[in-house]
Amino acid sequence: MLAQSNHHRLWLREQDHPAINLPRWQQQMDLLTSFYRSQASLILQLSDNSFQVVCAQQSQDYKLNGGTIFFDAGLLKLVESQSGYGQSHAKGNEFTSGLSQFQHVICQLIYWPDGELFGCILICDPNQNRFQERLAPLVETTKCLIQAELKHLFLMMKVQMLSVQDEQTCMLNQYGFSLMAPRQLSLSRRFGSHAGIILVEALFDESTEVQTESEEQRLRILARIIHSSLRDADVSARISHNQFIILCFIDNESNLDSLVLRLKKQFAKEGQNLNLVTGQSYFTPDTQISLAPMQQQAIKSLNLNRIELQKTTK
Fold it and tell me: Rounded distance, CA 238 to CA 228, Å?
């Protein structure tokens, strides 16, 4: 897991952040519903082709309450085909979700500050048709308010990311690992996943006079190989100059051994003049201990393997 911003994949309602004032967003939906005399006004967030209702004002229960997640091929096509300027209009029969119960929907896109699509504002079945053009600036104002808060959130997440990121490899640093790993471990235990700790230490051959790559370049290669070998749920970090740590979630202990072997093979293929030593520890979801003892077990394993490697290389 690299320390890169993944804000596009996080549901906003699942984050508690001072930059976002959801009650104010709700007030905007109440206001739009009142002025447009609509049956429903919604703020939707898009992530991985699904939509989540961030805020909603409904004249009756249309099953579009805050937190509702749904897929709608028609709405996805609508938001992806828009240029981002002005509002678009759609009929209910164009949608494949609960939005199909409305006859007429007005759509206004919302963007993250980096240009990625955040989602949209929907005004469903507006009865105030006579003054829709005059009301359009009100929707634009709501969009600007939301985008201003998204910008604040985006910048604060960038600052936070830099504080947990290793500058050279763009991985998490030790502080970042101490924040992310316990959270992922707790989540994995909830789902009954087994887990393992792997420590990887690069031993550079100082006797080699000619090196095709600098030490810093080879460390970046190691970071890339580690990242490409892991799944999204796994957590990896650079915890010292030449040490990396991996928290991975697996089905059984043999999977942990296979991962270590795969990493070593890839390192041997790409990392010339580079010796690697690894240590590992494995634990089941019913092991009620914190991350620190697990890491200590991996350190002991690493130290023993380093001694064995030094014996064989003498």
Answer: 15
Q: Identify residue 66 by its one-letter amino acid code.
A: G
Which pLDDT tens digit goes with each residue over 171-211? 999 889 988 898 888 887 777 788 899 999 988 765 544 44
CA–CA gap between residue 219 and residue 265 (Å, rounded): 16
Q: Cβ distance 87 to 105 under 8 Å? A: no
CB 198 within 8 A of CB 278: yes
pLDDT tens digits, residue range 35-84? 999 999 999 999 989 999 999 999 999 999 999 999 999 999 999 988 76
d(CA 240, CA 130): 66
Instruction: Give the three-class secondary structure for 180.
Output: helix
H helical segments located in the chain: 22-36, 73-81, 132-163, 174-190, 215-229, 253-270, 291-313
Hey, how many other C-beta atoms are within 10 angstroms of the C-beta on 7?
19
Burial letters for 95-117: b for 16+ Cβ neighbours within 10 Å, e otherwise?
Answer: bebebbebebbbbbbbbbbeeeb
The DSSP annotation for 187-251 comes to HHHHTT-EEEEEEEEEEE-TT-S--SS-HHHHHHHHHHHHHHHS-TT-EEEEEETTEEEEEEEES
Helix (H, G, I), strand (E, B) or coil at 52: strand
Report CA 124 to chain centroid distance, whole Å.
31
